[in-house]
Amino acid sequence: MALANLSLRLIFMDNTKLTAENRTSILKQRFSQLFGGGSRTYQAPGRVNLIGEHTDYNSGFVMPAAIGFHTMVSIAPRPGRKLVIYSENYSEHIELDLDHLPVARTGHWSDYVIGVVKMLERAGKTLVGANVLVVGDVPQGAGLSSSASLEVAIGYALLDSSDHRPDQTSGTMCNGTGIDRTKLALLCQQAENEFVGARCGIMDQFVSSHGKQGQALMLDCRSLDYRLLPLPDGVALAICNTMVKHSIAKGEYNQRRAECEAGVRELSKCLPHVLALRDVTAEDLDTFGHNLPDVVRRRCHHVISENARVRQAATALESGDLPAFGKLMLESHRSLRDDFEVSCSELDLMVQLAGQAEGVYGTRMTGGGFGGCTIALVESACVEAFQQTVQEGYTRATGCKPEIYVCYAADGVGQMF
Ligand code: GLA
Fold first, then answer.
1. pTM for the complete prediction?
2. Which among 204, 224, 303 is the best mutation to test ligand 1's pocket, defined by most ligand atoms within 8 Å of the CB?
3. The CATH number of the domain where 142 resides is what?
4. 111, 102 contact by CB (below 8 A)
5. For 109-162, how does the pLDDT look when each residue is reduced to its tens digit (9 = 90+)?
6. CB atoms < 10 A from the CB of 79, how many?
7. Which of 21, 44, 152, 316 could, after both became Cys, cross-link 324 (CB 3.0–4.6 A)?
8. Nearest CA to ligand 1 atom 1
């Protein structure tokens, strides 16, 4: 396919049916226009969370799936210790000297890249200089983890392309296909926590690293043990974008974390084994929660009940009981709306509209909240009608046309063809 002057991002956004081979060859062409040949290409997906919201940073349970939107990175080594990175989405290039990395964030998109590079180097992974092309089609500001997919894609590509030499520090981390995906996810989370300044949990980076086609991933965010749970054939993940931009780096997210931590501090006075809300039962909260400020008690109630819902949802999925799964999704939404207070009127409206459509097992807001997307589990046969009904209803009520993405669970980070 000829590139001419078309934006790569637009080619990908408008052509969701492009095969991975097509995409790789477009990227290779673009890379050689910019830097010359010899590139390898990688992609890391965004994610949607089926259930288990605001539980990851409370050492609890989550159940996300990777989706078919990606950040793609083409890379080729260059002599020296300089990274020259071109972002197709921003039509902008940056240069990083690996020996003199910036010390502070600037609010620029490159913070995510710099953060990952710093964490990799700090972990002892001596990177080689490289030319890099980055392009992404994960909708930004929609709560589908475009930033985690950028972090994981860059991290994986840098590790794999620095792996022309044997790794000196650990047998596994920098070992071609043997890249330790859990370590990579943790380093990317650290980059976001320590350099970008958002105190996110591990969910997004973990599923972007470990996701599997056709499967949801149930993760224990304390032990990092996970189970892959097959999603039934014939059920689509319909992601409905309210078009209200959410911004995770803003204060509300960090404030919710602080409220959960305040709950832990207070409860652990009576329950010394409590290190995180994960360790508190519903009965504990009833017995010992009366001293908590109302807001903190409600935050705790959400997290404790949501952890229980994730476990029940896993059982429902394993026994093929989608109506039970759907009911738990709705309860999750109510809890996020009323107890955790991270929904907004547009998300509530979208859930209401989707809940009334035919062939829908369940629906809820997904991700951090305050805008972004909802997720609905919809019979594939009904998904077109679903799109139309929800789009019309939402547009009529708000004057704004929502985007609806019909997705199926995808694979985590890897090299493209
Ligand atoms: C954001 C964060 C995640 C998680 C969710 C809420 O997506 O990045 O770590 O906390 O919000 O479940």
1. 0.94
2. 204
3. 3.30.230.10
4. no
5. 999 999 999 999 999 999 999 999 999 999 998 999 999 999 999 999 999 998
6. 7
7. 316
8. 368
